Amino acid sequence: MNDIVLGQRSLTDRLLRVALYGVLIGFMLFYLAPLYVMVVTSVKSLEEILAGGLMNLPKKLDFYGWSEAWNNACVGTECRGMAPFMWNSLIASTAATIIPTAIGALNGYALSLWRFKGSELFFGLLLFGAFIPFQIVLLPMASFLGWIGWSSSLVGLTFTYIVYGLPFTTLYFRNFFVSFPMDLVNAAKIDGIGYFRFFWRVALPSSVPIMIVSIIWQFTNTWNDFLFASTMTKLESATVMVALNNFVEVANGVKRYNVDMAAAIIAGLPTLAVYLVAGRYFLRGLMAGAVKG
Amino acid sequence: MATLEIVNVRKSFGSVEVLKGIDIAAEDGEFLVLVGPSGCGKSTLLNAIAGLQANDSGEIRIDGRDVSGLHPKDRDIAMVFQTYALYPNLSVWENIAFPLEARGVSKADRRAEAERVAELLHLTDYLDRKPRQLSGGQRQRVAMGRALVRDPQIFLFDEPLSNLDAKLRVVMRTEIKKLHRTLGTTMVYVTHDQIEAMTLATKIVVLRGGEVQQVGAPDDVYNLPANMFVAGFMGSPSMNFMEGVLAADAGGATLGITRPDGGSVSLHLPVPDALAARYDGKRVVIGVRPEAMVDAESETRDGTYQQIEWPLEILEPTGADTIAVLQSNLTGGEEEMVARFSARTSARPGTVVPLNVDTRAVVLFDPDSEEAIFHAAASGSAPPVALAVANGSGA
């Protein structure tokens, strides 16, 4: 009797499992389809693309789209390819990753382990900054940058990224350090170990998981940003996202889909690389800091 | 090496007064143990000594100098925490030598110093490991090593053994005692475990509700408790309490005790005349240690033991002796009493059995104030920190 019941249950179990995996695989294919189309289109010749068959594999591999995108794509009348804009993005995003992460670590450390009178209020106000929609600050920020002479420049854009990254990085590190044992700080105080030495030797080395979260967050957000970048840069200082938009928008005559697709993939590669390298820590860090804090 | 004086120290958290004017003095080389139930203020007091929390008023003097306003690092103290507080990313030797790093000692000297301390604590083989690779006892030793390397004036211990299992706790307790013998440095040790207090201390401070209940040598606190709280808190199993009525007579007084089953027994006690007169016809509580309450088969010294009969509830053999559980006659309480019977006792549970009570070890308490009014063990001298009524010559 028991065996029969178990047998029945295991059959429904198996059916449910098959259905579950079926649904999951269906979703996966649905989400991966655009990427697939991008990749295959980027390595097809223009004739093959225009002949139709969006989902077909290429008959012959053709890297014309990739070399054209990297070397010759045009923004307005300039046809220098993507390379200079990639470089702009790399500079802006790297600075906007390293600086807010460093300052955020120090902020979060102070706001959790070395609290002072009013530190909770300070943190509350800072947190407020994380919830202001960027559209609201667009104009004031632009006029402020104009006032200090950084308008339409990469420096101004990077500065904006740094300022608006700080509330997030501070929040991450503060929530991470809040679960840090207070006895460690007390022991350090008694043993005469100062604020910065403790930060440098104990707190910072322990915070690698949340540091990775902060790095991925800042890098992908600033790299993918279009709003600030399109508003606050001009042709020479445009980031790759702005440039990508222009490549696709300004093309005359026949749309070169292979070039567009290759350009889009190139523009997305760095964030993908960052996530592949550090993604494992990303999840771990989210669990450690954001959730537990 | 230093003396420690705590003078009228007070501390409040909001409207809650946690320390209500603490006065303690420890001599150079003293092993001072602060003991009490949770919430008694012992950890708050230790944090005030360490400087991790400022005291609201009063003075904390180390070697005569008030350190109340000083930063912890300027007080020349070292502290061992209950959680060990080891830096997880640093190796054992770096943990031990970290306090020296802040003082600008060179790396080679730091390593040498860590090795010296590690040898003392049997940690030499673990110097390059990380704390997470160590057992609880080893972590505890590293925490002690970090304190030792400082060579401070005073060591502070905050329940250092609470996170260890029972067996290791006993081993580490002995090690701490040895350490104190070797170094001779003043130590202040916080615990809620009265056995740790008894075994380690040269001076015990019993705290309750932010007030000092008694200060004294372990022997005095155990044998001459100042009040019912101290008597009940120190010692395991704790002191037995019975209620009775005192009647003055020649050479002291007789305590009449009504048993829970309605029978009555009496004990003659050599209390001073003045005290007997004062409490004549009044209720008092008598405290008797379990080891001073034995069965008829146990060896008893002549003269000092008096026999009473009492209903026996349960016997719990432990091998070496037998724990006898009896019902107390304290009003309102469901309290039990415990007597120490011999291993081969013939007493039967459920019957009324003879008990030999060592009247040289009993304590009398005022049932209202709960203060001790008479210590038989101190015959002739007054209770150390108690009412003046107990003055006068003993019997």
UniProtKB/TrEMBL annotation, chain A:
Keywords: Membrane, Transmembrane, Transmembrane helix, Transport. Belongs to the binding-protein-dependent transport system permease family. CDD domains: TM_PBP2. It comes from the Bacteria. It is a multi-pass membrane protein. Gene3D superfamilies: MetI-like. One of its GO terms (cellular component) is plasma membrane. One of its GO terms (biological process) is transmembrane transport. This is ABC transporter permease subunit. Pfam families: BPD_transp_1. Its main location: membrane. PANTHER family: ABC TRANSPORTER PERMEASE PROTEIN (PTHR43879), GLUCOSE IMPORT SYSTEM PERMEASE PROTEIN GLCU (PTHR43879:SF1). The chain crosses the membrane at residues 18-39, 90-109, 121-148, 154-177, 198-219, 261-283. It is found in: Cell membrane. It comes from Oceanomicrobium pacificus. Residues 86-278 form the ABC transmembrane type-1 domain.
TrEMBL record, chain B:
Pfam families: ABC_tran, OB_MalK. GO terms for molecular function: ABC-type transporter activity; ATP binding; ATP hydrolysis activity. SMART domains: AAA. One of its GO terms (cellular component) is ATP-binding cassette (ABC) transporter complex, substrate-binding subunit-containing. PROSITE patterns: ABC_TRANSPORTER_1 (PS00211), ABC_TRANSPORTER_2 (PS50893). Residues 4-234 form the ABC transporter domain. GO terms for biological process: carbohydrate transport. This is sn-glycerol-3-phosphate ABC transporter ATP-binding protein UgpC. It comes from Oceanomicrobium pacificus. The gene is ugpC.
